[in-house]
Amino acid sequence: MKQKVVLKVAMKCQKCKSKALKVAAEQEGVSFVGLEGEQKDKVVVIGDGVDVVKLTTNLRKKVGDTQIISLAPQK
User: Fold this and answer.
1) Tens-digit pLDDT string for the chain (75 aa)
2) Would you say 2 and 47 are in contact if contact means Cβ atoms under 8 Å apart?
3) pLDDT for position 61
4) How many CB atoms are closer than 10 A to CB 13?
5) How far apart are CA 38 and CA 25, in angstroms?
6) Would you give the DSSP letter of residue 34?
7) How many CB atoms lie within 10 A of CB 74?
8) pTM of the entire predicted model
9) C-alpha distances in angstroms, 46 versus 11, 25, 51, 57?
């Protein structure tokens, strides 16, 4: 079952945004990664069987403060 995860990540520069996308894309089961929001501070991940806790932990370690905004099945 595909799911859509929206995470708010503290990203101050373009390099941070690139790193956040790279970290998210390396996760197992991810099929789409993108930025969302007015200030492009939300990372959107769509995939099948994505471990949200592991993804959040990796983003916190490698980029900065990360919060889970939403987790919903993809239609």
Assistant:
1) 899 999 999 998 999 999 999 999 999 999 999 999 898 999 999 999 899 999 999 999 999 999 999 999 987
2) yes
3) 96
4) 8
5) 22
6) E
7) 13
8) 0.89
9) 20, 10, 11, 17
Tokens, residue 14: 């373009």
Burial of 43 (0-12, 13-18, 19+ CB in 10 A): buried
Q: Tell me, what DSSP letter sits at residue 26?
A: T
Q: Which long-range contacts (CB under 8 A, 24 or more apart) does 47-51 make?
A: 47/2, 47/3, 48/1, 48/2, 48/3, 50/3, 50/5, 51/27
Give the whole-angstrom CA distance, residue 29 versus residue 8: 20
**What is the reported pLDDT for 1?**
84
